[in-house]
Amino acid sequence: MIKLGVVGANGKMGSQVVNLAINNKDFELVCAIDMFGVGKQLSENVVVEDNLEESIKKHNPDVVVDFTQPSVIYENVKKYIKLGVKSVIGTTGLSKEQVEDIEKMSKDANVGVIIAPNFSIGAILMMKFAAEASKYFSNAEIIEYHHNQKKDAPSGTSIKTAQLMMKNNDNFKLGNCDEKETIKGARGGEFQEDGKGKIQIHALRMPGFVASQQVVFGSDGQILKIHHDTINRECYMSGVEIAVKHIYKNNQFFYGLENIL
């Protein structure tokens, strides 16, 4: 049985992970950390605590699942590695440089870390399909839709999608004219990495959405759209379960759930 700690336990995603840990025969919820709801009883033996390091040292989880905030996630991951506890990171907002730092720290300490911008199997397939289509289309843009409480934009999923696409194509604006925005940001944000692979990402934030993404490809005479909708947060839990069970047996660093499926 895998001893599981949940950080951000009272959040929308964290509470789903708590339910997963309580109801899955392969997991034992041993600690729950959140700055809100301290003292709240989550199971017979677990109450919400607010001191991350003290809770981990006291309860000694095998794996920690973190769904917190972009503002704290980098420091949290450094603490997990320092404490020698494996982690599954679902919080987005890490920069490319921070991900690279975490990868180095993980390898140096021989402590497993999975950073996954998305845990939905359907979303992972959407990214894989988009990467494959990029071999055949010279123009593409990404539109991502999230609820209006999401703090980072664009989403980690859209950035990961763009990175996968750019491995197969380094120019998604073939034939585009010189553009001038009469309203700043009208064309979305231009994402590129290592000086190449420019691709427009448009981020929508409004109530009613959970998470959706559409990748639109175009060429002469045709349009291809790859679209994925998240209806509720339960769809992420199968991916979280896969990630926890995988990192429990491994001390490696992984960026993206597609690397362990």
Task: Show the helix and strand layout.
Blueprint: E1 2-7, H1 12-23, E2 27-33, E3 48-49, H2 52-59, E4 63-66, H3 70-83, E5 86-89, H4 96-109, E6 113-115, H5 121-133, E7 139-146, H6 156-166, E8 189-193, E9 196-205, E10 211-219, E11 222-230, H7 237-248, E12 253-255
Describe the fold and architecture.
- With 261 residues, the chain is α/β, with parallel strands linked by helices.
- The chain folds into two domains: 2-115 and 234-259, NAD(P)-binding Rossmann-like Domain (Rossmann fold); 121-230, Dihydrodipicolinate Reductase, domain 2 (2-Layer Sandwich), CATH 3.30.360.
- Helices cover 32% and strands 27% of the residues.
- The chain is built from seven helices and twelve strands.
- Strand 5, helix 4 (96-109) and strand 6 (113-115) form a beta-alpha-beta unit.
- The radius of gyration is 19 Å and the shape is elongated.
Offer a few descriptive terms:
alpha/beta, 7-stranded parallel sheet, 5-stranded mixed sheet, 7 helices, Dihydrodipicolinate Reductase, domain 2, 261 residues, Rossmann fold, elongated
